[in-house]
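tool_call: predict_structure(chain=1)
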Amino acid sequence: MAHRLQLRLLTWDVKDTLLRLRRPIGEEYATKARAHGLEVEATTLGQAFMQVFKAQNHSFPNYGLSHGLTSRQWWQDVILQTFHLAGVRDAQAVAPIADELYEDFRHPYNWQVLDGAENTLRGCRKRGLKLAAVSNFDHRLQDILVGLGLREHFDFVLTSEAAGWPKPDPRIFHEALRLAHMQPAVAAHIGDSYLCDYQGARAIGMHSFLVVGPEPLDPAIRASVPEEHILPSLSHVLPALDRLEGSTPGL
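tool_result:
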């Protein structure tokens, strides 16, 4: 007789899964610049940030740790380059802005807990699940989660900075399993990235679920993800776990 699956560990992505920025990056940067006497359009800064962030992540992945950078240096460079691309050539004027912005994003007032996050985490705890955050983030995540009242729900928080590898690298998921003393077959991961979260966890034998927003899901992704693995909102997590545990392992 086939035995019933019983999950023991649930790992969570954080940004855009459990919490999000209160305001767009461009608006935050523009407001801070204005406080320092610089007028820069929020839209221009937002567009510049996206270009710089993508390039920086490509050239110096995971905060440039393997290149001898600290995450603070990495982010300060992103901010300086963002303002430069947006037309502010005076790096000396931007330096204090970069310092303040780095510290600002450590504080909970810049972040918003998504609807259903706390109730869902609490419900998962009541099921007896061990919970962990596994996030492509730097060490500031601990302060953010404490400030938002979410840290208490997690047995541990594993950032890509601390692990040394970003998702979807299998080593960060293996490290989470090692810290939890769990095997992948009794663990599941929840996140909003098809590549980093959904595929990354499944590649090492974990179960996984994909959180989707209100925007239409890419048809290729939708075709490759079973309907029961798609979470339209966090309120769908507990029913999805019920369905998974009610299924026969291996089928």
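agent: The longest helix spans residues 42-59. Proceeding to next step.
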